[in-house]
Write a structure and sequence with these properties.
By secondary structure, this protein is α/β, with parallel strands linked by helices. Helix content is 43%, strand content 19%.
């Protein structure tokens, strides 16, 4: 008698810790008597038949690797009714009884569509931005924060040597969590995020001048990608203060690298939970961290939730970075 089979895929932007989640899905699935197939390049793999049978050794020595061994992509074809139907037919032809989807909210919408076509799906939040409203933590966030912190620490060395102001852009198009956490960790004089309206004169220049008056000679400004304009901000600071100012965009270095302990452990817990949910017959669910615990929530409900930015932590950052 053939084993029941599940599939696992990674979709959207890659994030450190995705491999740990894939590993957990494969190992937990096999341990519980399931067959597991890995889908390459996100939903594209379900459209192009790009899948591979996984075994215990398929995921050996992957927990420490960044990126995703299953590769990832965004699929325009899948984002059509015909594409979703084609993917569902392919899952049925393989005998796949459920799919674990690791990615962000766009990937969750794809999973909801696939579920509606009769293929049960469970999602795991994997995105460095920490921008999934239904989960207080997403896989990759801790690694990205630590990478940003390490890079800004290096930038600080040269800023200090030249009495400069460094304006550093970190990732986070709609969400300022990386900027906020990394900004606190590096002692940034000012942190600019999409969630908080800012005035460059008040929130950057005035703070620099106030701290300069107390003897500080070099300055770090951390700016979220969604705010942008770091070159313009650096020019404005230099014009208004006379302090030599340089802009740096950290870019995709924040996506890569070996995942931190937290990302490996949380990813492993979420992967295991996803398999348990599929075995129990659950469908259209997101594995989420809420109040520090791993739980699950309906995908549609999760997508309807609004993120709450931690304004209290932001105020703490402003109070102590002087």
């Amino acid at each position: 008698m053939a084993k029941e089979k599940i599939a696992v895929l990674t979709s959207g932007g890659d994030a450190p810790g995705m491999n740990a989640a894939v590993r957990a899905v494969v190992r937990a699935g096999i341990n519980k008597g399931l067959g597991v197939v890995g889908v390459h390049r996100g939903y594209n793999g379900l459209l192009n038949g790009d899948v591979v049978e996984m075994n215990l050794r398929s995921v050996s020595d992957t927990i420490n690797r960044g990126g995703t061994v299953l590769y990832t992509a965004r699929s325009k074809e899948y984002n059509t009714p015909e594409g979703v139907e084609k993917a569902a037919r392919y899952c049925n032809s393989l005998g796949v009884k459920g799919v674990v989807v690791i990615g962000g909210d766009g990937s969750f919408r794809g999973a909801r569509d696939l579920t509606a076509h009769g293929v049960p799906c469970v999602c795991i939040p994997g995105t460095i931005d920490n921008d999934i409203a239904c989960s207080e933590y997403t896989i990759g966030f801790d690694t990205a924060m630590n990478t940003a912190m390490e890079m800004v620490d290096k930038i600080r060395d040269t800023a200090q040597s030249h009495d400069r102001c460094s304006v550093v852009e970190v990732m986070g198009r709609r969400c300022g969590d990386i900027a906020l956490q990394a900004g606190i960790a590096v002692g940034a004089t000012s942190i600019l995020v999409p969630e908080i309206e800012h005035d460059l004169e008040r929130d950057v220049v005035s703070r620099i001048l106030a701290t300069q008056a107390t003897g500080k000679k070099h300055f770090i400004i951390v700016v979220a990608e969604g705010v942008g304009g770091v070159e313009e901000i650096a020019r404005f600071v230099q014009e208004r203060t006379g302090i030599e100012s340089r802009a740096t965009v950290l870019g995709h270095v924040q996506r890569g690298g070996s995942p931190t302990l937290r990302d490996r452990v949380v990813a492993s817990m979420m992967g295991h939970k996803a398999v348990e949910l599929l075995i129990s017959g659950a469908s259209n669910r997101v594995v989420a961290m809420r109040d520090g615990r791993i739980t699950d929530i309906d995908i549609t409900e999760g997508l309807s939730m609004e993120r709450v930015f931690d304004k209290n932590l932001y105020q703490i950052a402003m109070d102590i970075s002087i």
